[in-house]
Amino acid sequence: MNVSRIALAGGVAASTVLLLAGTASAHVSVQPQGEAAKGGYATVNFKVPNERDNASTTKVEVNFPTDHPLASVMPQAVPGWDIEVTKSKLAKPLEMHGQKINEAVSKVTWTATGDKDERGIRPGDFQQFPLSIGQLPEDADQLVFKAIQTYDNKEVVRWIEEQKKGAEEPESPAPVLALTAPAAGEHGAAADAKGTGSGAQADKQTTAASDASASDTTARVLGIVGIVIGIAGVAFGVLAGRRRTA
């Protein structure tokens, strides 16, 4: 009886955990393909799940942060969706590749096309919306994007709540892109690639010498083994001849 109760309790607990995990993860999120390094460029995917059983998502708006504006935003085509990139003037121009940028992307909107019954993100599905973005800020650890999801029944869900430190996850959290440490400078990498006697070239020479030494050692071992086998064969032949003579 006790065993049955424990098993039942365990099953209920496991189901509850799975249910809560599914609920917590079913929101608009953003993830980089690889890393999103500070000061560099990245390709990111906005993942939009459909949380409704009787409606399809037909419009997705992603608003870009104003405290860290991004001058370069290029969307990748998504079949079945029209894309609109909205730019706004900056209060403080950005400097990018030696040029001043007076405007930056403030919003990207995806609108579903096609037949009403088949368009958009249908119940039980999700869609990813890829973007190439940059130049990422060097003085921030993350970027917060505020997203708005619209269903074909006119319902609008605003994923705009920012996570507060030490607090529980909000009901409608905004997508957050975590930034990693800056990538190594290209000059250092180029110097290593060219080599200066103690760099890559020296390593290549050392590797080549090691390979040559290993090959020479292998040849010597094989030669000795061949000699031993030959001597053993001669000795065997002599003994066999003596036995036949006897």
Automatic annotation (TrEMBL):
CDD domains documented for this protein = YcnI_like (cd08545)
The question of whether Membrane is a record keyword is answered with yes
Which InterPro entries does the entry link to?
YcnI-copper_dom, YcnI-like_sf
Q: Which residues form the YncI copper-binding domain?
A: 27-179
| Keyword annotations | Membrane, Signal, Transmembrane, Transmembrane helix
Q: Does the keyword Ribonucleoprotein feature in the UniProt annotation?
A: no
- TM ranges: 221-241
Lineage: superkingdom:
Bacteria
Span of the secretion signal?
Answer: 1-26
Q: Name one Pfam family in it.
A: DUF1775
What name has this protein been given in UniProt?
YcnI family protein
Q: What organism is this sequence from?
A: Streptomyces sanglieri
